[in-house]
């Protein structure tokens, strides 16, 4: 069962959106597990919720999580999403695949939509490449 972890600093926007979109895009019955976390967890941004709600994806129940709140040792893939900030680095098994998608930290609804749309473009490649 492939486990994919999305990381950023606050786990308030980009990683939360990636987790929500990945869950929505993953083929039914595929067995994927998705998590998101941040090195300095904050609060889920309401515009992240709104941007995904525009595409009928509900992440309103999500909460920001720290690295201790997710199964780091079970991750097959770790995707970092920081652009301007220093991304969290998580040591992992030698078989962990690491991917970096440097997405800007959105500040307004247009920025959240742009991040959402870029994640929607990138995620299918990630899902296809997994065993």
- Estimate the strand proportion: 15-25%
SSE topology string: EHEHEEH
Pairing-aware structural class of the strands and helices?
alpha/beta
**Alpha-carbon distance between the two ends:** 9 Å
Number of helical segments?
Answer: 3
Strand order in the sheet with the most strands? 2-1-3-4
Q: Measured on Cα atoms, how large is the radius of gyration? A: 13 Å
Q: What is the residue-averaged pLDDT?
A: 92
Helix content: 25-40%
Flag low-confidence runs. Answer: none
The total strand number stands at 4
- Main β-sheet description: 4 strands, parallel
Anisotropy-based shape: globular
Notable traits:
31% helix; 131 residues; 3 helices; single chain; alpha/beta; 4 strands; 4-stranded parallel β-sheet
């Amino acid at each position: 069962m492939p486990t994919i972890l999305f990381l950023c600093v606050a786990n308030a926007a980009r990683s939360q959106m990636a987790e929500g979109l990945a869950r929505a895009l993953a083929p039914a019955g595929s067995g994927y597990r998705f998590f998101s976390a941040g090195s300095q967890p904050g609060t889920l941004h309401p515009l992240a919720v709104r941007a995904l709600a525009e595409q009928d994806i509900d992440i309103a129940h999500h909460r920001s999580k720290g690295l201790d709140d997710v199964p780091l040792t079970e991750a097959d893939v770790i995707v970092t999403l920081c652009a301007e900030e220093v991304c969290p680095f998580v040591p992992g098994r030698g078989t962990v695949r690491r991917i970096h998608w440097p997405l800007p930290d959105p500040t307004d609804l247009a920025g959240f939509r742009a991040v959402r749309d870029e994640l929607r473009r990138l995620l299918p490649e990630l899902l296809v490449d997994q065993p």
